[in-house]
Amino acid sequence: MFTKRLDRIQPSATLAMTAKAAELRSQGVDVLNFSVGEPDFNTPINIIDAAKKAMDKGYTKYTPGSGIIELREAVCKKIKRDNNLDYNIENVVVSCGGKHSLYNACQVLFEHGDEVIIFSPYWVSFPDFISVTGAKPIFVNTLSDRQYEPDFNDLESKITKKTKGIIINSPSNPTGGVWSDEAIKKTLEISLKNDLWIFSDECYEQLVYDMDFISIANFSKNKDKILTFQSCSKTYAMTGWRIGYTIGEPAVIKAIGKLQSQSTSCPNSIAQYAAVEALVGNQDIISDMVNTFKVRRDLIIDGLNSIDHIICDTPKGAFYVFPDISYYLNKSYKNKIIKSAYDLSMILLEEQYIVTVSGESFGAPNNIRFSYATSEENIRQLIDRLKSIFHLIK
Ligand code: PLP
């Protein structure tokens, strides 16, 4: 009944777990939700006020398909201020969140017969963005003890005449890994040599803890084939507002604008005015979040590593940790064999109401993702509850 296109994609595993947590909570269960992909902060009041003002002024109509000029100008100011990049409004298209931006860019650049490189572990949506276009995702290994930087031998061996693009996501979801400058430069060098479209998904760019973040386009004089994707979602606790943007060559930017003019018409008008305030107004929320997340990251890393046989390196960004639980695979809990990370994640849910996302959907069957966008108290409880389960696994 449905098209083949639909068969090429899967429902989002992370959103499915978030729905599961909400369902349990509505039944009164004391759920510890470590599956969330969004900051547990409120959208700052200045941003909310800007939205209210926009409504009062009647800015509640269609806007230009690629976003209001004020917001595209605000993006240019923001990327100069934070990322030291010089672009103008012809280089910017605003979409309904970073996910929409990435989806659209795949639609305008990739098609049947193309191959696109992504790095495992990957954000759940990357393979689907590629597959739905008819192109093929090609998975390249990374080094878990080096912030999940590429295995460059594997990368070079996977590039063929069909390779059209490469998607980089540093800081990464699900690993939290942040690549070193050297790893970025080397990836760029290989990509440019092979004339690939380089997608840099920088939606966690502000959430880095032990270093400064450098936007990838800074590393190359030739930016023609580099597309930078950023978003208001994580940086300003605005996940529900749905504003993201793409920065790149005007021809690609225009093509994305054309596509979205026939799908969403334009991003939400009120959210766009709020996003102007987010990008150029008071930026205090960022340092507040970074300081808070850093404390939580250290707490959860210490806690996880204090459990026998769990290995978890310290990620330098985002708000995820991605421990290796492979020691516990094929062992048993209450006479039930744990065959996969998914089985283990289900035991955590059913026995202790801990909601996580198992690694399979990120291409990492030996891992489980925990999001620490939750309180220190919840993290302490998590570690206690995990200990009560793990010591029974034999
Ligand atoms: N890229 C990555 C790696 C993400 O984790 C997400 C959201 O979870 C996005 C992009 C898209 O976020 P949004 O569509 O809310 O901007």
CA distance, first residue to last residue: 47 Å
Instruction: Write the H/E string, N to C.
Output: HHEHHEHEHEEEHEHEEHEHHHEEEHEEEH
Strands, count: 16
Globally, the shape reads globular
What structural category arises from helix and sheet content? alpha/beta
Can you count the helices?
14
| C-alpha Rg (nearest Å) | 21 Å
- Ligands (ions, cofactors included): pyridoxal-5'-phosphate
Widest sheet, order of strands = 2-10-9-8-7-3-4
Mean pLDDT: 95
β content, as a range?
5-15%
Which spans have pLDDT < 50 for at least 5 consecutive residues?
none
In short:
Helices cover 41% and strands 14% of the residues. The chain has helices spanning 4-7, 13-26, 45-56, 69-83, 98-109, 125-131, 152-158, 181-193, 232-235, 250-261, 269-280, 284-305, 341-352, 376-390; strands at 32-33, 92-95, 115-119, 136-140, 142-143, 149-150, 163-168, 197-201, 226-231, 244-247, 320-321, 332-333, 336-337, 354-355, 357-358, 368-371. The N and C termini lie far apart (47 Å).
Task: Describe what you observe in this structure.
- With 394 residues, the chain is an alpha/beta fold.
- Helices cover 41% and strands 14% of the residues.
- It has helices at 4-7, 13-26, 45-56, 69-83, 98-109, 125-131, 152-158, 181-193, 232-235, 250-261, 269-280, 284-305, 341-352, 376-390; strands spanning 32-33, 92-95, 115-119, 136-140, 142-143, 149-150, 163-168, 197-201, 226-231, 244-247, 320-321, 332-333, 336-337, 354-355, 357-358, 368-371.
- The chain has a seven-stranded mixed β-sheet, sandwiched between helices. A three-stranded antiparallel β-sheet has the order 11-16-15.
- Strand 12 (332-333) and strand 13 (336-337) form a beta hairpin.
- The longest helix has 22 residues, at 284-305.
- The chain is globular.
- The model has no long low-confidence stretch (mean pLDDT 95).
- The structure holds pyridoxal-5'-phosphate.
- The site of pyridoxal-5'-phosphate has 13 residues, from helix 5.
